[in-house]
Design brief:
Blueprint lengths: L7 H14 L9 H13 L6 E3 L5 E3 L5 E3 L2 E5 L2 E11 L8 H20 L10 E9 L2 H4 L20 H14 L5 E7 L18 H17 L2
Parallel strand pairs: 5-6, 6-7
Antiparallel strand pairs: 1-4, 2-3, 4-5
C-alpha cells in the first residue's frame, strides 16, 4: 500500500506560515505541524496515534539524560516518529549554522544509539526527521566565509553560499543515516500571511519529507 497524502502541500504551507508568524510564541508555533502530522498518521493507518508538540518536549537520550524534540508521535505506548524543526532568520543565518549542525549531529547519534540498543523495543524502529526553515533574503546567496584551518577544508564547503551549506549538511545527515529524512524550506524575507515557501532542492523538498513519514506510518500500522 502506498503512502496517502491528502492536500499535503497546502497543509505544509499553512504549517510553515503559522510557524513563522508565531516564531516567538513557542507554545503555539507548532500548531500547524501538529495538525499536519496528525492527519498523515490518521490517513496511513494510525488514527489513534497521539501527537505531542509542547515547548521543551524532552525524550530519553543515550549519551545525555534527555534530548529535546519538537514533535513526538506515540501509539499505544510505542514511539512512532520524532521530528525536530529548526529555523534561522536572516540575522542568524551565518552564526546559527554551526550550532544547528552540532545539535543535529548529536540528536541523530542519540537516536541511532537508542535504536541500536532497542531502547524502543523490538520491531520497526521509529522514524526521525529534521526540518530546517530559513528566512529567504540576500544573505542566503552570499558566499559563506570559511575560517582558516590547519588542514584543507572539505572541498564542497569552499566557494559555497550559506544556503548551500545547509543543503550539504542535511544531505549528509541523511546519507549517514542519522535521520530518515531531512527537508529545507525557505520563507520570504518579509513574512506575510499565506506567503508560499520555496524549496531550493527537490531532494530536500517538503513533499518528499512528508511521503517518508507517511510510508513509515503505513509500515508501522501493518505491524500491529
Amino acid at each position: 500500500m502506498g503512502a496517502v497524502l491528502t492536500d499535503d502541500e497546502a497543509r505544509l504551507s499553512q504549517a510553515v506560515d503559522w510557524y513563522w508568524r508565531a516564531l516567538h510564541q513557542p507554545t503555539s508555533r507548532l500548531e500547524g505541524f501538529h495538525a499536519l502530522v496528525s492527519r498523515i498518521l490518521a490517513d496511513n493507518g494510525l488514527p489513534a496515534a497521539r501527537v505531542h508538540t509542547r515547548h521543551g518536549l524532552e525524550f530519553p537520550g543515550f549519551f545525555m539524560p534527555s534530548r529535546p524534540w519538537d514533535i513526538v508521535a506515540m501509539h499505544e505506548g510505542r514511539l512512532v516518529a520524532a521530528l525536530a524543526i529548526r529555523s534561522r532568520t536572516a540575522r542568524s543565518l551565518e552564526s546559527g549554522f554551526v550550532p544547528l549542525g552540532e545539535e543535529a549531529l548529536s540528536t541523530g547519534k542519540e537516536m541511532e544509539a537508542l535504536c541500536r540498543k532497542q531502547a524502543f523495543g523490538p520491531g520497526l524502529r521509529p522514524w526521525s526527521g529534521w526540518l530546517v526553515l530559513l528566512e529567504e533574503g540576500p544573505a542566503l546567496t552570499r558566499p559563506a566565509a570559511v575560517a582558516p584551518t590547519l588542514l584543507q577544508v572539505v572541498p564542497e564547503y569552499r566557494h559555497s553560499t550559506h544556503a548551500q551549506w545547509y543543503e550539504l549538511l542535511l544531505r549528509k545527515l541523511e546519507r549517514e543515516r542519522l535521520f530518515d529524512a531531512c527537508a529545507l524550506l525557505l520563507g520570504p524575507e518579509q513574512r506575510q500571511p499565506s506567503a508560499p515557501y520555496r524549496e531550493p532542492a527537490r531532494d530536500l523538498g517538503g513533499k518528499r519529507f512528508l511521503a517518508h513519514l507517511a510510508s513509515h506510518a503505513g509500515a508501522f500500522a501493518a505491524c500491529l
